[in-house]
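Running log. JK asked me to keep both predictions on one page so they can be read side by side. First protein, sequence followed by its tokens:
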Amino acid sequence: MRPENEPDLMRLYLRHCAIGFALSAAFVGLLLWRDVAGLGSLIAGSDIGLLAVFLLWFFHGTVFGSVQFAIMVMLQSDDDDDDDDFRGPLIPVRVTAQARSGHQ
């Protein structure tokens, strides 16, 4: 049903989401290990610390995965070659303006 040359976007998306979630795990691990803003000690002393770690990992993974996928999609674009100057050289033109007194 689908052409053979069509990119497998789902596989691309899942691969880069997995990369984003791996980066998120490293990021959350560093946040907790370095105790940034007392976050590590706050989570360690909380009775719902595992939920907090999961939510940190999940939401950061969503962001990092989306960024990974967006970067990959943008890197796959064709080079848009519209840098040609069809108008000729640009010539600066002096425009004089006078300020009206009394109006602010």
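And the second, directly underneath as requested:
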Amino acid sequence: MSRTTAPKKKLESMNLTELRARYLEVVGEETRSPNKKYLIRRIEETLAAKKRRSPTHRATATPPSAPPAPAPQAASTTDVTQHAHGRGRFAGLSVQELQAKYLEVVGRPTGSSDVDYLKWKIREAEAGRVTVGPRPEREAKVREDGKRIIPLSFDAEALAALDKAWRDAGLPSRTRFFMRAVHRELKAMGATEAAAHFAPKEG
């Protein structure tokens, strides 16, 4: 039996150094991976691929009497035009151009840079399936002490990670964390007057 057809049991009996050498021999590149299962899998996949590409295997797999496949017909100009219009209408647009088109069609700006989302939203707005125009501002709830409550939403995993971070930092509450974060960001933006409203309280 040749070395290139070593059974799986033989690969599994190799130590890491031997597997790396076998990987180099079969795959054709060096690896420092410590994962034996990964190395064995890549070696086996490469050996299988080489076997499929071998002349003997191709001759067995393709009957000699099989008729040649018909030459593909050239697509008509109409087909090409319909394909480009149906799937490639925004193909040449950059993210900035898509955002501008979004503003034009949806009627409000977006900070999204997700190309697929921008294309989908534009098409939905053109078809009348989504609301267009500026969204009305949500009215903030007002507490008895006059402070306003604004809505913030996070998924559960992100919020749990956030709460762990400010607790580990020794902060007394989530609100204190947000106040400090907003203060620091406004200062970095040069909005010192606005930042003063969020300055940490003494004591």
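Observation for JK regarding the second prediction: Residues 91-137 form one domain.
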